[in-house]
Sequence to fold (219 residues):
Amino acid sequence: MDIKRIFENNQEWVQKKLDIDSNYFSDLSKGQTPDILYIGCSDSRVTAEELMGIAPGEAFVLRNIANMVPNTDLSVMSVINYAVEQLKVKHIVVCGHYYCGGVQAAMKSADLGILNPWLRNIRDVYRTHKDELNAIDNEEQRYKRLVELNVEEQCINVIKTAEVQKAQRDRNLTVHGWVFDVHSGKLIDLNIDFIKLLENIMEIYRLDLTEPEEQELKV
Ligand SMILES: [Zn+2]
Fold:
């Protein structure tokens, strides 16, 4: 790739936008009101806006290796907090993809240095669903199912946060689990039954959402 070409592409893009709407960038500079928070993989083949057919300003985006939502990751937690509390997004999407290198790397025993603790989160997903996954003989199908289960577990991590629970209760914020199929280009809604999932886990993760002054201080 010619890096210089990128700046020429940018000039062409600016001109194309201005040809259609001369106020395009002045409107864009006024602020953002995206409806969607999209959490996806850093994989260069899985773009966010392009595969959803949406324009700049329509999605708040976070991408990392294997679309993870680790509970203690400051970057992911800050993005979720800002998207829900400040931008008031209506939907949170965790989008995985088949043939994800991050998920495949997590299934191998190679020592990958700083990636080890990150990929361990995916190994935890495997451990949680070991019986189902080990029952799948076909290795490709097993990887694909792990990609789906990883999306489901990351959606659960999203739901564990206080701001998401509050927004679900107050303004019906919804969480979605999707998978992008690199082989066909299709976006697949996993139609995760969150009501059923939540019934099982909310006993553990439900947070007391009353204001701090209403809560009894117990130290
Ligand atoms: Zn990936």
